[in-house]
From TrEMBL:
PROSITE patterns: PDZ. NCBIfam families: prc (TIGR00225). The keyword Signal applies. One of its GO terms (biological process) is signal transduction. InterPro entries: ClpP/crotonase-like_dom_sf, PDZ, PDZ_6, PDZ_sf, Peptidase_S41A, Tail-specific_protease. Keywords: Hydrolase, Protease, Serine protease, Signal. This is PDZ domain-containing protein. One of its GO terms (cellular component) is outer membrane-bounded periplasmic space. It comes from SAR324 cluster bacterium. Residues 1-25 form the signal peptide.
Length: 382
């Protein structure tokens, strides 16, 4: 048999094999589409029965919005529908200015936990501490709450002058505190720093905001530090790009972080192109169970690149990316679209980052004193 005839026969066989496969795939797609139509028809029937038969008349737009929220709540704790007011509040927080009481929270084991209390804010004045458990917001129980159900409770209207919180300190769960806390305009600084001794800088990053990298750079340029103790404890995260810009101040040329979509394809790679003109300082990073998201990116990059050591507790383990899509002028979808991967290709989501030296934190004591165990361990490594 001649080669062209052989090739022609093979191509014909391949075509005959692919034809039923394509037909099967098309049939499967048609069945999926028909199932979607049946489900939409079911939804329409339920909607109209509620509109026509429910004992209390329902406002159509509110009912449909609740249906959309219900759909997003089934995905993961971070995907949620936002109103324009809620989106604007997120944007204000990224700038460090918002109306509230001065706390950051995380849902840990189905409990709304205070992860950070900003200094000189109503929350601090009324006795809230990192680690406190909030059980009620404006007398609404938070039992079994998930993160994507929180905005309607926590993002109370701007015109509200107070928010009432019921909470307890974890060491005394039987003692409940109920406080009516005034809301005010909060201007939170993303960093704070001090030098406990010559050549040593203690630099705390409270949250990654638009100005964080510039604030870190300013602190580093105060003098020629031999050691930087980078405190990321209780840092809930913030802006990815701010964490990347900050990481570049500590890492020479090489990878910082990459994001991958649900197919495992690389969406974005962030790389440092920095070259240090002089010897880089020693870096000691402090983390705890509230260190999350963008803060974990910085800690993970420093650890993976062997640029410094991590001391403290295993971090929170939020290693996913949320993107925001405009649905209408008044409605926006914040949805999880990718995962973070450290320079060594590790996803930290639901795993956290393990420190090089494990030391339990002490949230109820003043930072940087003799009772601050993680800080005291860092001092030993100067």
């Amino acid at each position: 048999m001649k080669v062209p005839q052989l090739l022609g026969g093979l191509i014909c066989c391949l075509f005959l094999w692919l034809l039923p496969q394509a037909a099967y795939a098309q049939e499967e797609a048609i069945q999926d589409f028909e199932q979607e139509l049946r489900s939409l028809e079911e939804f329409s029937k339920v909607y109209h029965i509620i509109q026509n038969q429910f004992i209390t008349p329902q406002e159509p737009q509110a009912l449909l919005r609740q249906a959309i929220r219900g759909m997003t709540r089934s995905l993961d704790p971070y995907t949620q529908i936002l109103t324009r007011q809620e989106l604007e509040k997120l944007e204000q927080e990224s700038l460090g200015t918002y109306r509230g009481i001065g706390i950051s929270t995380q849902v840990i084991k189905d409990q709304l936990t205070v992860s950070q209390v900003s200094p000189n804010t109503p929350a601090e004045l009324f006795g809230l501490l990192p680690g406190d458990i909030i059980t009620h917001v404006n007398d609404h129980s938070l039992e079994g709450i998930t993160l994507n159900k929180l905005p309607n409770l926590l993002h109370t209207p701007l015109e509200d002058k107070h928010v009432t919180l019921t909470f307890f300190h974890p060491e005394n769960p039987q003692d409940l505190f109920k406080k009516k806390i005034p809301k005010t305009w909060i201007r939170s600084s993303s960093t704070s720093s001090h030098s406990p001794q010559r050549g040593v800088l203690v630099l705390a990053i409270h949250q990654f905001q638009k100005d964080t990298a510039e604030a870190v750079k300013k602190a580093l340029h105060q003098e020629d530090f031999q050691t930087v103790i980078l405190d990321l404890r209780n840092n809930p995260g913030g802006l990815l790009i701010a964490a990347v810009e900050t990481a570049e101040l500590f890492l020479e040329a090489g990878p910082i972080v990459e994001t991958r979509n649900r197919q495992g394809e690389i969406v974005a790679q962030y790389i440092s192109r920095r070259a240090f003109a002089r010897k880089a300082p020693q870096i000691i990073v402090l983390i705890n169970k509230y260190t999350a998201s963008a803060a974990e990116i910085l800690a993970g990059a420093i650890q993976d690149r062997q640029r410094g050591i991590l001391i403290g507790e295993k971090s929170f383990g939020k290693g996913i990316v949320q993107s925001i899509f405009r649905i209408s002028d008044e409605l926006f979808l914040k949805i999880t679209t990718a995962k973070y991967y450290t320079p060594s290709g590790i996803s930290i989501h639901r795993k956290g980052i393990h420190p090089n030296l494990s030391v339990s934190d002490t949230n109820q004591v003043k930072r940087y004193n003799q009772e601050d165990r993680i800080f005291q361990e860092a001092i030993k490594h100067l």
